[in-house]
Amino acid sequence: MIIIGSWNIRGLNSSYKQKMTQQWVAKNNLDLIEMLETRIQPVNIQAVEKGLGLHGWKFISNESQHPLCRIMIGWNTKKVATSLVSFASQWITCDVVRDFNATLSLADRHGGDGNWYGHMDDFQNCIHSAELMQIPSNGMHFTWHNGQQHDRTILRKLDWAFANQHLLMEWPAVQATFQARLVSDHSPIVCSSAFGLGDRGHRKPNQSPDI
After folding, report:
1. Fewer CB near the terminus (10 Å): N or C of the chain?
2. 115 is a domain residue
3. Structure pTM?
4. pLDDT tens sequence across 18-57
């Protein structure tokens, strides 16, 4: 069994957020994590990796593509193996990891501007073109909160868990859980499956899935 976590942490420079990330990984027994909007200066990458205290883990990031690192991926080398395919300032492929910050429908929005503009169809068109499907999920629907209260509250579903057909065939029991917000305005995501990577099909043990 492999468990994957994703979190728009909104900054990973502070020791407090590094400690919270370490606790989140331990609490959910995560084997692979993607941290979004980390805002780490390239010179501090190694210090942050050490500060996470995840012994036996390796990390890759897109720090060379932006003045501040936006995405960091880490994995437990005793459980999984992964490699970098390609990357840019807003995405890393190994195979599909991306920070979307977009909604799919009006049902994913509460408060704020209630209009639906033409450009908002772009996200749905992108998902359709990439032949991705939402992973069955539970937990919080609105994954982002603007930090305001009462009539100024704005809620959005900005965090998603998608998979291609190949992964869903390999992991028919995969499920995503959108957890309560902690030290970020975004909810962490934990994906798990009853099957291990070598339990179905011809995938080798410790081979990274296509997500």
Report:
1. N
2. no
3. 0.63
4. 999 999 999 999 989 999 999 999 899 999 999 999 999 9
